[in-house]
Fold this sequence. Notes:
The protein is mainly beta.
Amino acid sequence: MPRFRPSTRWSMLVLALAALGAAQASLQADSRQTVQAPKFEVDPLWPKPLPNHWILGSVIGVGVDSRDHVFIIHRGDSTLNQRTEAGADATPPVGECCRSAPPILEFDPDGNLVKAWGGPGTGYEWPSSNHGVSVDDKDNVWIGGNGGNDSHILKFSHDGKFLAQFGTPKQGANSNDSTHFGRVAKISFDAKAGEAYVADGYGNKRVAVIDMQTGKLKRYWGAYGNKPDDARLPPYDPSAPLAQQFRNPVHCAEPTNDGLVYVCDRPNDRIQVFQKNGTFVKEVRVAPATRGDGSVWDIAFSRDAAQKYLYLADGKNERVYVMDRQSLETLTWFGDGGRQPGQFFAVHSIASDSKGNIYTTETYEGKRVQKFRYRGIAAVPRGSQGVVWPTGR
């Protein structure tokens, strides 16, 4: 057998320890570069093509019912150009294709169109600019509106039968008005309490809580739980002291199973968290250098009982953040600007289904809905994942 001098053995030991240290450092670096979080892949074949030469305008709401059917609402009547996009809707028509689909569309989990309805009708006043669609525990469908006179909420049955209108169109509604809303962005629900949370909105600067049956206002609050103040704020400045009021729009107000409410203060680039009585709990700023439209557009939660994860749509930076809901730590994000599946143009609204999949809609020139399939909890890049294209695994 070969015989080694002590100095040789010592050198070999040093080299072995160095190799072990390098391996440990590599593992630590890998753990810093990845995180355990929900993994998603875009489904480029969802939904299936629409019939009747129908196309979508700006899609400004998405909700999911008890059967995982997906509802979207869009503005084809006002955002499709009749010369270049919806020629069949022009007077006279300029071509066979295309025409706006009805405002509300329902898809099954496979992406098949189930039903399409909505628009002006008897007994209610359709918003001049519909905004947001939400499905309650009885599968009723609620919408708001952010047009100049849209100070009301509409409630329909699952198949589009008119059920109720809360408020009436009115100009000049204010954040302390007990009978009108101010250009509602979205409605969410606490079914056990029989309450609806109103992100109010594009005109008002508050969260309003109403009775789901009567529409009666029960309570409301502004940023930090303050009394809302409609005084005009200066343009958002990332380096300025934090605004003590919400900026318009207040874009979502999402109650949780553990008694909290997460509010999208969109142009202030922040999520504020409250108890359900309006007591301020905490906040987090997200991409706080974002100006203009802001970074905090809409929120959905994972469907586990603890709602461990929060999914945040950022329509200015064109991404979806995956966050730990309790700590508000951003774990990872996916998406990029563009027209291809998995990319975004003004990702506006987000919802999750019982299988863990998430759905996004895009406003402005995005004009579409996308599905991102849940692939379980896995090691994903900490930070940007880019476009989450299917891997085939």
